[in-house]
Predict the 3D structure of the following.
Amino acid sequence: MNDHTGPVNEKRGADMTTARKDAETPVDAGPPVTESPSSTAAEAAEPSEKAARRRPTGRLEAMALPLTWLAVIVVFSILETDTFFTSANAASILASQAVLVVVTLGLIVPLIAGDFDLSIGSVVGMSALVIAILNVQHGWNIWAAVVVALLAGIVVGLINGMLTVLLGIDSLIVTLGMSTLLAGVALWISGANTITGVDQTLVDVVISYRLFGIPMEFYYAIIFALVLWYVFAFTPLGQRLLVVGRNREVARLSGMRVSTLRIGALVTSAFVAALGGVLIAGTSGSAGPTTGLDLLLPAFAAAFLGSTTIKPGRFNPWGTVIAVYFLVTGITGLQLLGLQSFVQNIFYGGALILAVSFSQIIRRRRMKQGF
Amino acid sequence: MTNSTPLVRIRGLTKIFGGQRALDGVDLTIMPGEVHGLLGENGSGKSTLIKVLSGFHTPDGGTLEVAGRDVPLPLLPGQHRSLGFDFVHQDLGLVPSLSVTENLMLGEIASSRKVAYSWRAARERAAAMFARYDVDIDPDATVERIRPVDRAMLAIVRAVESIRAGAAAEGEAGANMLVLDEPTVFLPKQEVGQLFSLVRRITSDGSSVLFVSHDLDEVREITDRVTVLRDGRTSGTAVTKEISGRELVTMIIGRELAEHPHDAHAATTVGRDVVLSVRNLSHGPLQDVSFDLHEGEVLGFAGLVGSGYEEVVYSLFGASPGATGTISSGERTIDIASLTPRRAMSLGMALVPGDRKNSGSVATLSLGENMNLTVLDRYFRGWRLRHGTMRDNVRQLVTEFDVRPAVPDLEYGSFSGGNQQKALMAKWQQTNPKVLLLHEPTQGVDVGARQQIFDMIRGSTATSATICASSEYEQLETICDRVGIFVRGRLVTFVTGADITKARIADLCHGQASAPVPAP
C-alpha cells in the first residue's frame, strides 16, 4: 500500500533516537478507572493530568545537557583561568564552530523527516571549492560564485531526494554514494590543490566584521537556528515533517504530500550545507579537496546529542546548537590542558554513541513506566 | 497430577504504578486441562497480570503457587520457562521473511551449541510436529506468505513445544500452561475455528490454556471457565456454560449494556439523496463494484477474506494506488485512479484505517499531535501555530468523545486501545467529513468503548454518510442501515432493514462462497 518506500527504507532515520516500540505498552498504567463508569471524563482526567505535569525527571532530562555544559565551562574556567576563561577564547569557540552549527541544523531537517543525509560534508566542500575556483581561477564576481555554489547544493539535494523518494532507495545508501562521488569530483576539479585568495568582501562579511567581539558568522548561525525553531515549533510544515519522519503511512493517509516533504527536506540539508561552504570559503579565504569532509561525523554527533535535550526524543534546533557548543567546549578545554588533537575524534565519536545510547535508555525507561 | 490441585493459583496479586493500583488483590486459579478465559476492559489489569507471570513486572504483593508449590515472586525474566509457562502474544513473534521451519526452530538454534545444524532433520521434525497437532502448514513456506491463522498456529505450536522441551529438561512435567494473549484479533473470523481446534488438542493431555480476549463470543466458545477483571480486581470467576453473554458483559463493565439503542434499521434509504455514486470500481480482487451511498446512511460491507470487502474504503480514499472506476458526488464525476488521500479529503472523505498502529496513528507523538494532523492549517494564524488554542480544542474534543484521560500532551501509545480508537474517530470528525470510511472500527477495543464508538457512528449520520467494512457481523447488525455482501470481488447483494442479522450476513458471505477464492 505504501507506494514510495522500499522495504529497507522504512523505520529508519529519526527513529534511531525514539526506539520505535510501537507501543501496545502501558495500557494498564493508564487512566485511573473510577468506580462509577458514569463519572465524567473531566473528573477522570484530573489526577493523571497532574501526574503528567509533575514529572520532574522529564524536566531534568530536558535540561541535563545545558547543565552539563555549564559544569564543563566552570571546571575548565577554574583549571585554566588564563587561557580558557577569556573573552577571546569564548569568541573563538563561538565563531569557529558556526559552520558546524549551520550544517548540523540543516542535517536535522531530513533526520526529523526520517531520512539520513551523509553527503553534507562533501556538499560543504563542493560549495567552497566552486566559490574558490570561479572567484579565484576564473575571476568571477564573488556573489555570482556564491549563487552558483548554492544552486549546486540544491541540485545535489534534488538528486538525493529523487533517488531516495521516487525510486525508494534508502537515503543512507544514496547519500553515502553521493558523498564519495562529490569527494572524488572535488579532488578532480581542485587538482588536489588548495585554492587560496577568495575575495576579501566575503571574508569581511563572514569573519572580519564583528559584533560584541564575535565574528558575524556566529550570528548567522543563530539567526538560522531561530528560523528553524520557528518552522518546527510554529508552522504546520514543521509538524508535518515530524509526522512524516515517524510514520509515512499515517502522514499519507492524513493527506500530507509525503514525497514532496521528504525531497524538500533533503534539498534543504544540501542547500544549507552549501551555505556552510560559503561560510568556510569566507572564514579561511580558501578551499581545498578535503574541505568540509571532517564535518560529517561532528554534525551527526551533535544532532543526536541535541535530540536528548530541550525536547528529548526529538531533533530540535536549540538542542542542536547547545550540543555543538558543548562538544567543542569540551574539546577546546582538553586541548588547552595539553591533550593532542586526537581528542577531537574520540570526543565526537564517543558523543555520537553515548547520545544514541542515552536516548534509547530514556525511551525504554519511559515505556516501562508507562509514559 | 491430580485434578484437584490447581495448576496455577494466584492470590492477592497487587501492582501499583505511580500510586494507581493496576492490580488490586487479584485471585486467579487455573486447573489442569482447562481453557481459562481472562476477560476485562482495557486498563482492567489483564496485561499487567500477564506481565507479572512473564517476569516483566515486579508485583507489590500477592502469592503464586504452581502445581501446589509456592513460587516466590517476582519471577525472573525467563523463569516462566522452567515453571512450564509460555506466551503467545498478539504480534506472535515470528520472523516474516524466514521459513516456517526456521521460525519453529528459532529457540533451538539460539541455544544450540552445535557448529553445524541439520536443516533436513529440522524440517522433518517440523513436519512431524505439525502432524502431531493435526495442523496443515508447509514447513518450507515463507511465513509472510502463509495465512494469518497458520501464522498464529505456528506460534502456538512453537510455544507448546518449548514448554514440553523445558519440562523434559527439568526431568518432570511442569505446569504446562500456555498463555494466549489476544491471539485472534488479527484473524478473519472464519479461520478462528481452526485455531480453536488446535487449542482443544493442546488441552487434551492436561495442559492448560489461559485465553485472553476481548471477544465474548470466542471466549464463550472455547473456554471452560472464565475470570473477569475490572479496575484491577477480580470481578468474578464462572463456569462458562453456566453464564450468559449479558451476565458476562455486566461483569466486565459493571453495568448493563443498552439493548440496541438504535432503531434506525427500519429507516429506509429509498428516496434519500445520493451522496456518493461509485461505478465500476476495480482493484485487486474487486471487480466492477457499483453502488450508491445515501445521505445519513450507515452502509456496511462484509465478505470472506479475499472477497475484497475491505478494499473499497481504501480505494475510495485513494489510499491504495491502482484502483479504477469513477465516483460521482453531486454534479462532479471523478476518476478513482486520480484519487490521492489528499484529494479524497478535499472531496469530504475521511478514512479511519483498520491497522491503528501502523496506518492510523503515531504512538510516540502526543494525543493532541495525532488528532490535529488533518487540521493544522486551521490553527496557523498570524504567522504562528496557536498551540494554546489547539490544546484547548483537543481537550474539548476528547472530553466530548470520552477519551480518557483527557490530557492532550500524553503520548498516544500510552492510551488503551478503546481510547486510541475514539481519539482517531474524533480526529476525523474534526474534518467534518461528508463520507466517513471505516475499516474494523472496533478492532482491539473493549466492550464499553465499542458501544461508544457505535454511538459515534450512529450519531454522525446527521452530517455524514458512513461506509463500514467489518468482519464482525454483530457490529454490522447493530449499526448498519444496509449491508453489502462481497463474494469473490463482486458486490453480490444488499441486506436491509430487519434482514440485517449476524446469521443472515454470515450465511450470505459463506453460502455463496464455497468455491475457492481465485488469487487476486
In short: Chain A touches chain B through 51 residues (CB under 8 Å).
